[in-house]
Design brief:
single chain; 6-stranded parallel β-sheet; 5-stranded mixed β-sheet; alpha/beta
Amino acid sequence: MSTDKTRNSELETRNSKVITSRDNSLLREARAVRDGKLDHLIFVEGLRLCEEALRSHLEIITVIYSDEIVRKDRAAKLVNELGAVCERIASVDDGLLATVSYTKTPQGMIIIAKRPESGPEALQSKTGRAELIVILARINNPVNVGAILRSAEAAGATGVIAISNTADPFSPKSLRGAMGSAFRLPIWRGASYAETLAWCAKRSIVTVGADLQASKEYTEIDWTVSRALIVGPESTGLTPDEVDLAAESVKIPMHGGAESLNVSVAASILLYEAARQRSSNAARV
């Protein structure tokens, strides 16, 4: 038996239904999630991100895949693995997938999953380590939000708070930028700035704002204690009032004619200084 026939036989055992109508209820629901109309669900697109969703143990509600992508062994294997955890699984042709896809070129696979729980309880570290929280203040570019989440996970952050008027960390654009980090990092979404700072103070987490006018450079403070890094929108940065409410503020020195950095780049620099100090401190203990 050929590889293709074996693969098709395996997929059939997963009770995958074939959708031929644009008005199918699963496709209508997927479009609603894509467009942000069903806030309790998230839209995950692309083979890599769908793999990350499965590995991160998201509660997967629906799987929709193209009949072309399962010609690839990697995709066929993933469809079978998804079929073991999700009963609502369907195949469509590329034309129908294009009516659901968030991107101009469909990525071959879409997952609808339950939005991970959000709240302060999720951010309480169980490792016993000093906490490193990232607070996203009014960052409305989802690409930057996703990039910061990716750097936060890589640098060992223990959680993220996306305050009100920050782009949704689980929007399709943010998810693409985060490359799976949003599925694994504890995220508290929708708190006010004052509520966030009060929560940090109660837990003895020292807040530090990124501010071009700060007197200290980012290497001049102790990042080994529990801290929450606050970064603001790229166009304006944190407001003077937001900076004043933080316990401390730091700057990244600029050279030449550069006035500022992309906010995701700036956050990465600050987070990796925190990671460097924490690693050095752990080595000394």
